[in-house]
Design brief:
By secondary structure, this protein is mainly alpha-helical. The chain contains five helices and no strands. The protein has one domain (2-122).
């Protein structure tokens, strides 16, 4: 089970990094027309829902959901270290001053994934 969730997590976090790399400049901007505030409000919630759906679709037992979600977050933390440390290199399309905001957004997303696992493991009726 651990290997499966590590792979799912790795694919998820690489997909998110690729999205920021190739289309991030359209939404990850500051200013009055920027989408930075919207990303902070929507991306963690979206990942919470996606994690919940993964856990339901793959029929993870209630007692294993918190562990599966936590394991799914680990590759993101590992990939995130490199992304944050090499922000300008990994995301040349984004403003280099957005590095700290990107790091905060990613940590909010990791927390949302872990929280989804904890909450769904406690709610047996879902």
């Amino acid at each position: 089970m651990i290997a499966r969730w590590m792979i799912v997590g790795f694919v998820l976090w690489i997909a998110i990094a690729a999205a920021f790399r190739f289309v991030g400049e359209t939404v990850f901007t500051t200013g009055p027309q920027g989408g930075l505030s919207w990303l902070f409000m929507t991306l963690p919630v979206a990942l919470l829902v996606i994690t919940f759906l993964f856990l339901k679709v793959l029929k993870v037992a209630h007692s294993d959901r918190a562990e599966a979600a936590s394991i799914m977050a680990v590759p993101g933390l590992l990939v995130g270290i490199y992304e944050i440390n090499s922000f300008s290199y990994v995301f040349p399309n984004l403003d280099p001053t957005l590095g700290p905001q990107f790091a905060a957004l990613m940590f909010a997303c990791y927390a949302a994934v872990i929280l989804a696992g904890i909450v769904t493991s406690r709610l047996e009726s879902i």
